[in-house]
Structures are given as structure tokens and as C-alpha cells.
Amino acid sequence: MNSLFESDIQVFLEKAEERGVVEEAELDTLAFEHDLDADELGAVRTELAAREVEITPPAETTNVDAGVSNARESAVLVTTDSLTLFMNEVGRHDLLTAAEEVGLAK
Question: 3-state SS string over 45-102?
């Protein structure tokens, strides 16, 4: 197996597979904590897809303290690098299926 998927990242993948779902914020945190570049994060996303793990947007919280905590985390992950911004945006959208591509082409 790829050296990328060792130790903490492997544990993350296994836990995500058990749950069947992972939030986008968890991926951002993983990338930040392990200093993953866009290609490495893409490999993690590919592995999650292979394990049929759904990547969801962060759940909205009604707790004010949780909102402050999320705002702090978001501030840490803010970037002005255009490639990173693009990759983050692209990663939020599901890929089209073959049938959807054909339907859009018509």
C-alpha cells in the first residue's frame, strides 16, 4: 500500500469506512495536521471513494460555542493560493455518472 496511507491516515480511513461518512471539515483538518498537498489529499479522497465513504459538507450547529469553534478552525484553513482554492471547491462537488454526462450532452 502507498506510504501515504500509513499510521494516522490509515486509522482515519478505517474509521471513516466504519462510519460510512466523513465530513469535509474532517478532511481539511487531516490535510492541515499532516501537511498534505493537493495530490495527497486527492489520493485520500480516491481511497475514501473506493471504500464507498460519503463525503458530506459540515453539519450546521445551533450551539453558539460550536459556531465560534468552527469559525476558528475555518480561519486556520483559509488560503489565498488559487490552486488550493480551486481544488477545495472542485472537491465539494460530486462527479457526474456516465448517464448524467450523456444526458447533459444531449
Answer: HHHHHHCCCEEECCCCCCCHHHHHHHHHHHHHCCCCCHHHHHHHHHCCCCCCCHHHHH
